[in-house]
Design goal:
Blueprint lengths: L6 H13 L4 E4 L4 H6 L36 E5 L2 H16 L10 E6 L7 E4 L5 E3 L7 E6 L7 H12 L3 H7 L4 H5 L1 E2 L2 E2 H14 L4 H14 L4 H11 L4 H7 L5 H15 L10
Helix pairs in contact: 1-4, 7-8, 8-9, 9-10
Length: 277
């Protein structure tokens, strides 16, 4: 067995290096020292313990066939102190807003330093902060949740954080519900279907054809993204705002509302043949 680096993490590292003058990749795949102690620089298959901290969370332990078991899932980036302060501050800002920021879903934890005291480890799942080792005064350690190790959207989201962008800027730059924009159903993208559904909800006039389209969208989504699947489940439950709201986990309410608001207010259009008031 051997741990490998995915294109997603390589792209993340390359983009990170372009963002900061001093940034230099110090590693994705762990060395012998990492292999002996485990962690995110080592693949699931190569862990020395089955209960290593990096393979026990829901987004890290891979059910058969769900996501790769032979990949590293962390990036170490060397930075000068000025760049370290900026980089760490941008990560911490989103860590604090992780309940509502759609980009936070991809990160498990990061280690960094603000230039005083000891470096810190910031857990993006539990919100805990602990002391990190002194070598994190000169490099940031960033852990991607293993389920996203092959997901290009993870790299895009993290690079958006490292640029210092707001969630709105990120959603404008890269569509966080990109699957909807790519999937064609009944001649419309998933994004257009969502817009049309919302308009019909407002007007109270769902159609059989649209219902069938949404059934297909729900089937195609499968387990691509729990957020989007929840929306579709709500729509199929009765095509009412109440049903959709009930299907959305409370922690995701603002994210979904912001996304729908951005889509619908920016360029909403009536369904052909239906007049808008």
């Amino acid at each position: 067995m051997a741990t490998r680096a995915t294109d997603t993490l390589r792209d993340l590292a390359a983009g990170w290096e372009r963002l900061f003058p001093s940034a230099k990749l110090s590693g994705i795949v762990g060395d012998t020292r990492h292999a002996k102690r485990g962690g995110y620089h080592i693949s699931i298959e190569d862990q020395v313990r089955d209960d290593d901290y990096s393979v026990i969370r829901p987004d890290d332990k891979a059910p058969p066939g769900k996501w790769p078991r032979d990949c590293a899932s962390a990036v170490d980036m060397n930075l000068s102190l000025p760049d370290m302060k900026v980089c760490h501050a941008r990560l911490v800002a989103v860590w604090r807003a992780r309940a509502t920021d759609p980009r936070a879903r991809y990160i498990n934890a990061h280690n960094g330093w603000n230039g005083s005291g000891s470096p810190g480890r910031y857990d993006w799942v539990t919100s805990a902060v602990s002391t990190a080792s002194d070598d994190h005064e000169w490099h940031v350690h960033l852990e991607i949740r293993r389920r996203y190790v092959n997901d290009p959207q993870a790299a895009k989201a993290v690079l958006s954080i490292l640029r210092g962008e707001s969630p709105a800027q990120y959603l404008g730059r890269e569509d966080d519900m990109g699957f909807f924009d790519e999937k064609q159903i009944d001649g419309r993208t998933g994004a257009q279907l969502v817009k049309d559904v919302w308009w019909l909800l407002v007007k109270g006039n769902p159609t059989t054809a649209l219902y069938r389209s949404l059934e297909q969208l729900g089937a195609d989504l499968g387990e691509v993204d729990v957020d989007e699947a929840a929306i579709v489940t709500g729509v199929l439950a009765g095509l009412t705002p109440e049903a959709i709201a009930a299907a959305i986990p409370p922690a995701l309410t603002k994210q979904v509302a912001d996304e729908l608001g951005r889509r619908l207010m920016a360029d909403a259009a009536p369904i052909p043949g239906q007049a808008r008031e």
